[in-house]
Amino acid sequence: MEKTKDKIATIILYIISSFVILLLVGFISYILIKGKSALTPSFIFGEPKFTEAGGGIGPQLFNSFYLLIVTLIFTVPLGIGAGIYLAEYAKEGRMLDAIRLSIETMASLPSIVVGLFGLIVFVQMAKWGYSLIAGALAITILNLSSMTRVCENAIKAASKGVKEASLGLGATKWQTIRRVILPIAMPQILTGVILASGRIFGEAAALIYTAGMSAYPLNFSNISLIDKASPFALTRSAETLAVYIWKVNSEGMLPDASRVANGASAVLVLMVLIFNFSARILGKKIYESYTGKR
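Now predict its structure.
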């Protein structure tokens, strides 16, 4: 009787897993099929046209990648640092309870609320205006709670069995964390980075109020972090691909709005897939280099 129940449960779990995979494959296939006609070099790397057909998504694509890099520069160190503190240094008490309550509260915040907070604090009070740095900080607030929880759980799981051994061999606590625990926890931490990256690629509501909806022409000969004419300026408005898709569908000013939206959606999905696979491969290489596995 128990064996029969076990087989039934196993079959049900396999069916659920297969359904999830088929749902994802169907979703990705639908978007790629709808947008494949627009996947040309002139569309992917070209400048947008706001009053006529035939424009591209080059600036928005660059803005999405650049925003990803800037946001991860803030999110990853803060998330790993908070995870290390909660897993290895924090002691039970009111302070820890307050931190965990804050993390849980931040995780439940709607992105539109974070966007309005970024508008008030980063755009208006800090006087940065609609800028890439304001958008990056707003997305960091959205991602910080999930990144912290993933890092904390990864560090706790990795420290079992190796922490005492490392300390027993004479290593300090920080040496143990840096040289033993973090390399072992790297695959799970990388999962948190990938989840955060997906949020960065796909977020629109928070970025409308912080990064803005303007796409500057790309002039890569001008390299500056403050000159708004430079693609690398942190102070310029930076319309991402997700925001552009929303704008094209909501305004309806382009004669080929449907083609642009479908093509941009297909590019966005491909970006996420390529980044996920690349991050997995890179994370595996880093893990192998630390653990000596080949």
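The chain has one domain: 39-291.
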